[in-house]
Amino acid sequence: MPMSTVEAVPGEVYPNADVALESALKKARWRLLPLLAVCYLVAYMDRANISFAADSMSRDLGFTPKIYGLGAGLFFVSYALCEIPSNKLLLRFGARRWLARIMLTWGVLAAAMMFVHTSASFYGMRLLLGVAEAGYFPGVVYYLSQWFPPAERARALSRFYVAFPLSSTVMGAVAGALLRLNGRLHLRGWQWLFLVEGLPAVVLSVVLWKMLPNGPRDADWLERDEREALEAAVHAGGADGTHETAEGALGRVVRDPRLWVLGTFYFFALGTSYALSFFLPSVLGELTHWTAGRVGWLISLGGVVSAAAMLVCAVHSDRIGERRWHVAGATLAMAVLLLAAGLHMAGTFAAAALMLAVVAYSAMQGPLLAVASILVPGRNGALFIAAFNMFGITGGFVGPYWMGWMWELTGGYAVGIGLLCVPCVVAAGCVLWLTRKSTAARA
């Protein structure tokens, strides 16, 4: 809707809402997305860096693949249980306070992983880390849904979530160097890995506290007409649930059948991703016979390719207004690649198939998160996104445990990886069913 011409900043005027909206979005892209992406990059490193520590830590502490797989997965149990409470607290305390708190506690606990010395302490620390980090990802997805309208959302969310594949690039590049510090100051290499990679989260918690506004109304870098245009675009056509009680909102979300279908998709898709990623350095080492350093650089390259695929797919999805096949097509591609790798688990062919499966999973993230954030608008969307992510995080527990169990049962990774094609096919079926008539598939 056209607005009267107003002076927004000295020497510059916005003749209508469209110009004011674009100015506001440009500011939000540069002020919010890089900061939140860097924070998530650090978060993902702190939850997944045990994949690089796995071999040396297991040797030093006598862990079997089953113990390692269970410990890797236990993170997701406490994480899943705390997802919805965390997002309810985010609504109560505001994004700035709550996200900064999350970063501080997970940074301290991630560094404290260096003190693990038994399987029991390993399990306990992973559970505590899950409690500390719970809510960051769904909290940010909800937070960004308050800044970017639906037509822009896949691109915005992908520019935040691009930290997911790039975390593999950073981990792969630095893990080898940190592991080579083995013996320095009487610390093992894996202890250096946990210590050094945990500290950035503590520093970033202070940055979030100082720089992150709770929402557009608290952003002093937005002019009044920019703020009004942005809020009108974000909330157009959807109730925000402001006057509904927390209990009523949660009940409405839990009874929504779309949550259960989309949650089932994410359970299988994210479970498959974590089943692969937590064992990927070990699997690639076996396939290529490369050192940990060279495998790290291979994973780094895969992270760069995955990041590019995520951004390109999100831009294309927004441009043509299609979500359904951007998500389902990538999921089916994962199924084919994992089955091919499982059937021919040797040499560079299997290694390439596994790396391409990682790329396919990354590619669908922008359209997927756009669907999740559009289905339920407003404040109730915070609970919907948290519940949706809770399903996926539960899969994150099952996936690594599955791989460790299958390794002990069969003596290798081939069967476990090959059978991951089944949850991928089920996941694709879920998203195709959900979006068959939904405007979210085209939003």
Tell me about this structure.
The protein is mostly helical and 443 residues long. The protein has a single domain, classed as Growth Hormone, Chain: A (Up-down Bundle). It contains 21 helices and 2 strands. The protein has a two-stranded antiparallel sheet. Helix 1 runs parallel beside helix 9 and helix 5 runs antiparallel to helix 7.
Question: What's the structural blueprint in terms of helices and strands?
Answer:
Elements: E1 6-9, E2 12-14, H1 17-48, H2 50-61, H3 65-81, H4 83-93, H5 95-112, H6 119-133, H7 136-145, H8 150-161, H9 163-179, H10 189-211, H11 224-235, H12 246-254, H13 257-277, H14 280-288, H15 292-320, H16 324-343, H17 347-363, H18 365-375, H19 380-410, H20 414-418, H21 421-434
Antiparallel strand pairs: 1-2
Helix pairs in contact: 1-5, 1-8, 1-9, 1-10, 1-11, 2-10, 3-6, 3-19, 4-5, 4-19, 5-6, 5-7, 5-10, 7-19, 8-15, 8-18, 9-15, 12-19, 13-19, 13-21, 14-15, 14-17, 15-17, 16-17, 16-21, 18-19
